[in-house]
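Objective 1b: paired records.
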Amino acid sequence: MQDKIRNFCIIAHIDHGKSTLADRLLEMTGTVEKRQMKEQLLDTMDLERERGITIKLQPVRMEWKGYILNLIDTPGHVDFTYEVSRSLAACEGAILVVDSTQGIEAQTLANIHLAQQHNLKIIPVVNKIDLPNSDTEKTTEEMIKAFGFEKDEILYASGKTGEGVEKILQAVVDQVPAPKGDAEKPLRALIFDSTYDQHRGVVAFVRIVDGQLKKNEKIEMFGTKTSADALEVGFFRPKFFPSQILKTGEVGYIVTGLRDVRKARVGDTIIHSRMMVDPLPGYKHVQPMVYASIFPVSGDDYPELRDAIEKLKLNDAALEFEPENIPALGFGFRTGFLGLLHMDIVQERLSREYGLNLVLTAPSVEYKLIMKDGKIKTIHTPAELPDPSLFASIQEPWVIVEILVPQKFIGGIMELITSRRGIYQNMDYLSNDRVLIKAEMPLANIIIDFYDKLKSISSGYASLNYELKDFRPADLVKLDILVAQELVDALSMIVHKDVADKEGRALAEKLKTLIPRQQFEIAIQAAVGGKIIARETIPAMRKDVTKGLYGGDVTRKMKLLEKQKKGKKRLKRIGSVDIPQEAFLAILKK
C-alpha cells in the first residue's frame, strides 16, 4: 500500500484560493457528499469562517483511482507561517497556488522557500482562471522568472468552478513521491498538531514515519517520557474516521486519553512503550515576535485563564506564556505571539471558546540589555526596564522586510520605510510593473500599524513578509504614563528617544478622550526618566449645587460653591481613577 500513498499540502498567499481549491478536491474525490458540502469546508473554526482566512492547518484523507491522498490545508498569513512549516514536515509534495488576478505575493515567496527547505516536490497552479480580470500569461511569466518553473509544468485551474482540478489530482499522483519509511522498523510517529477533547483527552495528529500502530496498543511520547494507550486510531475524512490500524506513511490521529495537555507536545515522537529508538527531528523552536500581557477582568477567573491558555497552547505551538503580576491589573500571563493578527486571534479564541473576559496590555517586542558587568539580560515589557544607570546599552530586534508592490506605489512605500527608521536594501522587478522591495527595519516599528499604512498607501495592492534578522544597539527610552499622579505600568512603552515627545503627546491626547470624567480634575502626564514631556487635563464634572436657590443674597450661592470646591479637593486626594480597557487598546490604534 505504501507506494499508493501521497502526502501533500496546499501553500499560497492569503486569499489566493487554497481552501476553495481544497473544497473541489474533496468534492471530486467523493470524500464529502454533495449535500454535506459547504464553502471552505476545512475551515472549521467560527473565526475562520467569519474572517474568511485559514488559521489552523487541517488534514483530510481522500481516495482517488486506487491512491490514498492525504491533504493538509494550510494558512496563508505571515503570522501563521509556523503552522505551514509543521504541515510541510508531514508531506512529500506541495501544491503552490497563485491567484491569476493578483500574481505572486510576499507570502508566496516565503512559503516556497519553506517548501524548498523541506525538499518537497512543488506543483505550480495558477488559480481563479474563471475571473474576467484573470491574467494567466502575466502570472505564468512571474512564476517562471521568480521560481524557475518550465512553462509546461504550470497547471491552470479554477477552485470555484472545478475546471482543471482533475489535472491537479493526476499531477499529485504522478509527481509527488510515495512516503519513504520502513514498515518493518519499530513505530515512530511525528506529532504535527493536536487538539483537546473534553471526554477523550489529548488527540494527537500524527504522520507515521516508520512501523505501524494498532488500536489499544501502549504508546509513549519520546520527549516527555509519558505513557498512554492508543484508545482510538483513525483518519480525517475530514471528521474523525476510526480505523483498526495506522500504517507507514499514513496521516491520522491517535486518541491518547491524556488529561495533561503538556504531555503531548507538537514535534514530539510517538513510539511503542519500552522500545529503544531514535526520535524524529522535531520542529525548530519558534521565536515569538510580539509580547503582551493578558489579564482576566475579574481576578477570580485566573485559574480558568491558565487552563484555557494551556489548552490553546496544545494546538497553537507558537504561543508562549509565563505568569505575571502587575499591581494595577492583578495576576495574568505575559504571552508571546508571532504577530498582531496572531495576538488578535488568541484573544478572540480565549473569549469565545472559553467564555473569558480579558484585558490585554499594549504589545511590545523583546529587548536585550547589556549590563554594566557585561551580562546580557532579556526583557519583554517596559516595566522590566531598569534604571538607565544600571545598563551600558540596549539592543532591539531588526527584521528583513519583503514588500511586493505595483511600480506606481514605490515612492510612497519608500517614504513609509524611511519614516519607520528602515534601511533600504534592494529592488527586483518580477514583471514590468511589479517590484519586490527588500529593506531592514526595527521590529517595534512594524508591529503596531505598519501593515495598515502599507495597505492604504498602495490601495490594498502591497503584500508583506518579514523575518527576524538580528539585534542592534538603539537609543531607546521608557515612556511612562501617569494618571492622577499615579504611574500606570500597563500603559508604559519603550520608544526611540527622537520620537518620545511626539508619542507622549499623542498618547496623552488619546487617553483624555477615553478616560471617563470624574467629580474631580484628572491630570494625564507622559514622562521620560522623571521629566514630564506632555500633559492633558480632564476637567471635573460640575454638579449644579445652586439650582435649589431662589433669589436672596449672592453670598449664599458663593458659600455653596466654596463648599463644593473643598469637597472636590478632598475627592482629588482620595479619588482613584478607573481606566477602561479601551484606553489599553488605544495604544494599539494610535
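Objective 1b, second protein:
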Amino acid sequence: MSELVLYRKWRSQSFDELVGQPHVTETLRNAVKTGKIGHAYLFCGPRGTGKTSAAKILAKALNCEKGMTPDPCGECGICRGIQNGSALDFIEIDAASNRGIDEIRDLKEKIKFPPTLCRYKVYIIDEVHMLTPEAFNALLKTLEEPPPSTVFILCTTEPHKLLPTVASRCQRFDFKRISQAVVEKRLEEVGKAENLIIEPGVLPMIARSCDGSLRDALSLLDQLHSFCGQTIQKEKAELILGQTPEEVLSRCIHLLDSKDLKNLLIFLHETYSSGADLSQLVRDLMIQLRQILLFRISPEILSLLPEEKERMKAFSFSSEELYRFLRVLSDLRNELRSSPHPGIAVELAFIRMLRIQWEPSLEGLKKKIELLEGKIQKNLAETPISPEPHPALKKEKEVLVKAAPHVSSLSLDFIRDTWGEMIENLAASRNSLFPTLQQTTPLKLEGAVLFLSVPNLILKSRLDQKKEEVQLFLNQTLNSSLQIEIEAHPVDPDLLIREAEKIFEGAVLKESDG
C-alpha cells in the first residue's frame, strides 16, 4: 500500500488541530456543547483552508460513540468510519460530478430514512455551487425542513454563485486565508514529526507560494521531500518552487533604487537569456516592493527581524515611487499572460518605472515639469543676483552712472532711451531677469516711482514676484533709488490689425453676411 501524501496524513482530526480558523472552531465547539445544532451549515472560503476537514470534525463531534462532544475521540468505529468515508450515515457528495436534478431527487428519497448507527445523518455537499439551478430548486424544501436528526454541510469556494434562497437557509461560516506565520508554524511541526531537516528560509518560501492554503503548503513540502530527501536545501527549494533567487531579486531592487536604467536593462537581458521565468521575477519583486512600502507607511503590519528592518531603512525609495512601481508591475503581470514577447514587455515596464517623464501622460508631464524646475533652480543658484553688478554690466554701468542724474532729476525720456541697452546687457550676461523684463516698457515716472507696462496679467504676476530684484538692478544701473510698480496693459487687437495693414500694405477682408 502506498504511503499517504502529507496533506492527507496530516489532515486536521479535531477542532484543536484546525489551524487558522479560530472564529469557526470556537462557534462550532460551543454549538456542540450546548446542543444547539443547526440543520444546515454553509462553509465557504478559499481552497485548502479547512472547510471539508471542519465538516468531518463536526460530523464526528455529533456522532462519537463516547457521546456528543466538541472533542471526539477519533478512535471509535464511528469516528474512524467518518474519517475514511465508510460510515453509513455519513454521505459525502461531490457536486462537481453529481450536479443534476436526478442526483438530488435520489438524495431526497434516501434522506427520509432515519440514521442507522449514528445520532445524526450528515450530508456533506462539496463544491455545492456546481449544482444546476434545477437541482438547487429541488433541494430547497429539503434544505429548509430536513427530517429529524439530519444535518447538511455545504462547502464551496464560490459562495456568490449560490442562490440567495439556498444561502439564507444555512448558517454561514467564512473560512479565511491562513496567515503566513501560521502556515510556517504548522509546516515546522510536520517537518519535525517527519524527521525532516529543513534549511532556514525554505518554510517562508513555501508559505509565500501557497497563498494562504495549508493544503497547498503541505503538498509543496511533500514535493520537496520527494526531490531532496530528508534534508531540504534552500537552493533546491528555489529550483522546485520556481521562486527567484534572493541574490537576483536583491540585485534588481538595488538597481531600481539607484535609478540605474542602463545596468538594469543589462541585468534583465541576462536574466531572460538564462531562461528565468520573468513572470515569477515580477511577482516576487512585487512582494518585496510591497513590503518596503508597508514598512514606510505602517511598519507594525509586518513581522520583520531586526536585520530585515535595517535593510528596509537603507532603501531611498519614496512612498509615491513604490506605489507607482507596484501599479506598473501589476499591469505588467496581466500583460505577460498574453504577450508574445515577454522580454520586451518587461523592459518597457521597467523603463516606464525609471523614466516616467517619457510617458505621454499626466504623470509624465508632471515629472517633466519637476525636472525643468530643478534645472531652473540650479541655474539660478549658479548665477545669483548680488549687490555687485554682473561683470558684463560693469563697463556699461560706469557709462550710464556718469550720465544718469539723481532720482530728483531723472526723466522718463532718459530711462526710455537707456532701457533697450540695459535689456541687451541682461541678455548678454544671461541674467535670469532678461526673459521677464524683455516684454516690459517704461510707462510713466511719478516722483521716485517708475511704472512699468506689461502686455498681460501673467507677466505682471511673474514680475511682481521678482520686484525686489528688478528694483535692485535698476538702481544699481541708474545709480538711483527708484521704486517700481507694474501695470498690465493688454494690446488692442484693432491696433495690431492696423499695424499689420501698414506693414503688408493690404486690407482686412470681411466675410459678407449673405
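Strands lie at 40-44, 90-94, 121-126, 150-156, 171-174, 197-198, 231-232, 441-446, 449-454, 483-488. The CA atoms of residues 342 and 370 lie 32 Å apart.
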